[in-house]
Amino acid sequence: MDTGKSGLNRALSVLGVSAGLGVGAGAAVIGHGLAELRRFTLHTVELPVLQPGTLARAGREDEGFFTVLHLSDLHMIPGQRAKQQWVQSLAECEPDLVVNTGDNLSDAHAVPEVLRALDPLLNTPGLFVFGTNDYFGPSPVNPANYLLGKKRKARGVELPWKGMRAAFVERGWRDCTHQRHEFSANGLRVAAAGVDDPHHNYDDYGSIAGAPNAQADISIGLTHSPEPRVLERFEADGYQLTLSGHTHGGQLCLPRVRVPWPGNSRFSSDSRVSDVLAHASVPEEIPNRWGSGVAGSLSAAQPTGHALVTNCGIDAARVSGMHRFGALWMHVSNGLGTSKFVPQRIMSKPSATRILLTETPRVSGA
Ligand SMILES: [Fe+2]
């Protein structure tokens, strides 16, 4: 016979089991999120934007592409040796150009370790802009505000960004913060410009406004945060490509149903740098992979989970990877770190991206 006391005991035991399962599931998610911080990934994306004949002029027909290595959001904390070693290994890509879109720091004492991680890449022509996390130390965040998309004020102790900037410039990287640059990188003629972090309204596009040099092979705009108002200006001025970070790919994502995209299977997003390089005979496949209409076709190139927020004005569908923004190509990096107060990544692996610039297919009969 069921007494009131035994019914209460059963209810309490069900509640206890449920609570235990909830705590267990929560611990599993947190454990996964911590483990994901070290699952560094190299993405590879092909972008056929060069005029036919560019590779021949530069003596690069054999390679078939120029490589732009895009890094962002290192958020370095002293002692992150695995991250430093992985970033150092990216030099194996032998990039023609390195682009760093900011948020290198998450600690006032991390500049030496950022420079150690980037050291082999600082021998390559490079471009950079900073994010507010280069200027100010991190502060605790309310996760609810993050998920609600509430913007935090830039605050905290000032970080030693000036010394980091000086070290980058001394090694030959070009600061694109409100500056325009024209130069040649391994035969690729580059026109580039950038703005300071628009997420906190530090941007002054007017100081770099105007069309890029029409003689350039590639024109690149840099903005730490992919704010639409800045992308619109780059597009209106005729830039071909913008590079950004900031979103961390959504950082805390939900599962999504993955739609296979032919051509993305060749380079596993989980590949180690050396694995990717071992399969790098790409150019002859580009016409088949891209066809003639390329708009939007790269959107599956940097898989993440379903982003809940982008932490900026861009929509969740363009939280990471290569996408169209009108006539512009925009690439958003997942980044390689997180704020030290939110050391979690879920379905948004830390990553860098190798962008292979190739020639547009010749029009038949031309
Ligand atoms: Fe960041």
Characterise this structure:
By secondary structure, the protein is of the alpha/beta class. It has one domain: 4-Layer Sandwich (Purple Acid Phosphatase, chain A, domain 2). Helices cover about 25% and strands about 20% of the residues. The chain has ten helices and 14 strands. It has helices at about 5-35, 55, 80-90, 110-120, 130-135, 145, 160-170, 230-235, 275, 285-290; strands spanning about 40-50, 65-70, 95-100, 125-130, 175, 180-185, 190-195, 220-225, 240-245, 255, 305, 320-325, 330, 350-360. The strands form three sheets. A six-stranded mixed beta sheet has the order 1-14-2-3-4-5, with helices on one face. β2 (about 65-70), α3 (about 80-90) and β3 (about 95-100) form a beta-alpha-beta unit. The protein is globular and about 85 Å long. The relative contact order is 0.20. Residues about 260-300 have low confidence and may be disordered. It binds fe (ii) ion.
Helix count equals: 10
Return the CATH topology.
Answer: Purple Acid Phosphatase, chain A, domain 2
Number of domains as seen in the coordinates: 1
Shape descriptor reads: globular
What is the element string, with H for helices and E for strands? HEHEHEHEHHHEEEEHEEHHEEEE
Secondary structural class: alpha/beta
Provide the gyration radius in Å.
22 Å
**Taking all residues together, what is the mean pLDDT?**
81
Largest sheet: 6 strands, mixed
The CATH architecture name reads 4-Layer Sandwich
Strands, total number: 14
State the strand order across the main sheet. 1-14-2-3-4-5
Unique ligands: fe (ii) ion
Q: Output the CATH class name.
A: Alpha Beta
Distance between the termini: 91 Å
Q: What is the strand content?
A: 15-25%
Organism: Corynebacterium argentoratense DSM 44202
Domain Calcineurin-like phosphoesterase: 67-249
GO cellular component, one term: membrane
GO molecular function: UDP-2,3-diacylglucosamine hydrolase activity
